[in-house]
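hey so u asked for the seq, here:
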Amino acid sequence: MARRAAARVADEAGLGVRLRDEKELAEGGFGGLLAVGAGSVRPPRLIELTYVPDGTPEPGRHVVLVGKGITFDTGGLQLKPNAGMQTMKTDMAGGGTVIAVMGALRALGVRARVTGLVAAAENMPSGSAMRPGDVIAHYGGKTSEVLNTDAEGRLVLADALAYAAAELDADAVVDVATLTGAAKVALGLRHGALFASDDDLAAALTAAGDAAGEPLWRLPLVDDYRAAIDSDVADVANLGRGGYGGGAITAALFLREFAGDRPWAHLDIAGPGRAASDDAELTRGATGYGTRLLLEWLS
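ran it, structure tokens below
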């Protein structure tokens, strides 16, 4: 479904598109996507959309957008309870936002070159599913230990972020994900959590969110919390150990390990990505949060 939607948008908006299947993912070393998708009969994909502005043979700024595209999240072998699973068709909200943004760039005349990456997989339990204790080799070779199969979004984002850092020569990278319940607890349903390695990027995204009616609140990347995701058997663990708290922060610190040295921002939209009821301009269900914000920033 995700790849068909991306292909349709690419055709309508004049975008380049590349869809990596499971064979290409294995050949390229995208171990996070392969591990998360291993339990499903629907294999994972990495969707890459490219936009080059009209009439600009050598466009200046290059922005990479990365979206979490977990098409359904059961929690894997560490199965979610029924109530926690009912909204998980919208766990691809970050990926949907990236595709929506890419589809609108040409109509808005955006002058930056933009690449959109959607790391798409279905997190299902089965005999072939990833297990607690597995060690994953991500794109580029960095490894992670799976302490919780329900912390899967960061595993697929790690591959996409590492690929962007190594191959795409971006001026800025922004990822969007319904990543942690902790962000929802901290900020509720109308604010997205913003983490950033660069103050100017953080300020620009915050201003765009205010202008677009999709507010962000910046949270800190606390270096002292980095020890929470230490692993005895891998470079990093996919879940923060007890005694630190700050689940949204430790998830962002995990992603930072793969984001490289370019300006990077992470939008955790677990709260505003879904609406439980009609509320002002929002209708119940998926909200598309982040689309207006990112288009405001890019244009």
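The mean pLDDT is 96. The longest helix spans residues 93-108.
lmk if thats what u needed
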